[in-house]
Each structure stands twice: as structure tokens, then as C-alpha cells.
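Please describe what follows:
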Amino acid sequence: MKLIYVILVSIIPVMGSCASNAEQTLTPAQLEDRQKIDGTGEETMPIVITVRVSPDVAFALHEQAPTDESEELLKVIKDLGITLKPVHPGARDPLLTPFFTVEALDRATADRVIVILDEFEAVEGAYVKPLEDLP
């Protein structure tokens, strides 16, 4: 029997880690989301979205020194059920600090998250890295 998952317009099932590196306690619904399987019976792999933010917002997020832009971005992220994870935690290099990731359970959700994040001036880009070809 195939399980059919409906993504409601107001709910985005995503998973990830927060920028503060604090461990998140998962609710039973979140645990179930992590265990969803596709029609083949195989566990699905999350879709990783790379998010590049402006340098001042990157500094605010890494140093936990809120600015209006960083607070606005974090509010939307929280409303979407997304949490940011720095690609280079603890980095001070301005070429590394702007990169963060979030994980979505499927491509449709990832595409919706990207559209929403791209609306913010603080977000310089949000994308799903293409799959690498086999050697």
C-alpha cells in the first residue's frame, strides 16, 4: 500500500539544524517525517538547499548579534519550519560565513522554500546543488 503525503500550502515539512548549534528535540510528527518512504519502499534522502546571505546578516547569524534584517529572516525561517545550519560553523573568513543550508523532504518543498527565501534582500541566493555525475 502506497503512502500518500499531502503538503498543505501553509505547512512546509523540512528538517535541519539551527545556527546556534543547539540540539533540537524532535516531535513525534518530525520523527515520522524523517522516516517517510517513497513509493519504492526506500527511505527518501533530504534535499539540501544552500542559502547565501549578505555579509552583514552572516555576521549577525554567526555572532548571534541580531540586526533587523537577520531578525526578519529568522522569523520567516521559523514560520516555515526551517532552521539554518552554517556550512562553515565558527568561520571568520567573510568568503565562508555567508553560506548556510536547510533540508527539505522533497523537491517541491525545496522549490517553495527557495522562492520564499529569494524574496528577501538579505538572501543573495538559495539553490539546490545539482547532482554530481558519476566519474
